[in-house]
Design a protein that fits this description.
Elements: E1 13-23, H1 26-36, E2 40-44, E3 48-52, E4 62-66, E5 71-79, H2 82-95, E6 99-102, E7 113-117, E8 123-127, E9 150-158, H3 161-170, E10 174-180, E11 186-192, E12 200-204, E13 209-217, H4 220-232, E14 239-245, E15 252-257, E16 263-268, E17 281-284, H5 300-304, E18 307-308, H6 327-330
Parallel strand pairs: 1-4, 5-8, 9-12, 10-17, 13-16
Antiparallel strand pairs: 1-5, 2-3, 3-4, 6-7, 7-8, 9-13, 10-11, 11-12, 13-18, 14-15, 15-16
Bound molecules: 3,4-dihydroxybenzenesulfonic acid (4SX) and fe (ii) ion (FE2).
The site of 3,4-dihydroxybenzenesulfonic acid has 13 residues, from strand 9 and strand 16.
Length: 360
Amino acid sequence: MSNNSIQAPPPDVVRSAYAELIVTDLAASRRFYVDVLGLVVTYEDDDAIYLRAFEEYLHHCLVLRRGPVAALGRLAYRVRSADEVDAAEMFYRELGVRTERVPAGAERGIGEAVRIEDPLGFPIEFFYAADHVERFTQRYDLHGAGAIARLDHFNLVVPSVPEARKYYESLGFKVSEDIQDSDSTVYAAWMYRKSTVHDVALTGGDGPRLHHIAFATQEAHQLMHICDHLGAVRQSDRIERGPGRHGVSNAFYLYLRDPDGHRIEIYTHDYYTGDPDNPTITWDVHDNQRRDWWGNAVVPSWYSEASPVLDLDRRPRPITERAEAREADVTIGADGFSYTRAGDALAGGGPVGFKLGEQV
Ligand SMILES: O=S(=O)(O)c1ccc(O)c(O)c1
Ligand SMILES: [Fe+2]
């Protein structure tokens, strides 16, 4: 018997476009995102601040909204046309997840949109129309030494990376890199729609939680300036991990924690992934150069801490524990635990194994 139920096509996602973070102290957040990171204020009032980076011309890439509990309010993907907003509504109604159509202006600066609680438990919006504002790409008179160019990606903590990968592949995302072990347990994956390493990254852990929001800069020295600026205002403790060079993505990176503990990554450009046969890179979870190319340890908080996410009624989502092995355990806590090279004195001259971090 033919199956007459034709699966509606997925929306044509262009890129990760904006995030809404709920913050408990708007003034403290403004001091971090505007005074230190230098993001441009498109609009602000007593309840929210709308921010954009220097290469962006849409109304905002980040909304900071005052609220009682620090959490992720929403992640938004831009789709290729107004028709794709309709496609999103059809696709998710057919999928049977909670779907809401909102009018233009439901979010300041954003046109008509569809909001969902996606199959992974995240609050997601698909939009096309948005207000255009001045693009400051070459307003070097306004750029600080730590100028941020644009929003680059979202990193999501999910209990099962393969399940989340399958869902994002159903939206047409492709995998650029992932981290596995010899039993094929998948610890993380990076997936893209725009021609860079990722728009969304999936980190295996208790979820749904937001691991981080990442912004791109043009140059590594801009990350260094942000570190120096934090030192100058005696807030160097906002630096959680890095600066360093990623193995995965090859980007130069810096992780910061904002006044509410939300994790923000600042990340230089990675590499082009736009050809249809772009090969996937798979890293061994025991390769200590996978997350930091020079093998610097990954601090335990980077593996364990993340922001809760809200549902469409602004209630915190319940967390599901990861059932599979956890990367922090498998690499015996922080990194620095690596393969020895065959014949290494550390390996007693024997075959490739991996040394324990406490061994010199
Ligand atoms: O730490 S990893 O090299 O795996 C990494 C690569 C790219 C990212 O955006 C990230 O957050 C983390
Ligand atoms: Fe990242």
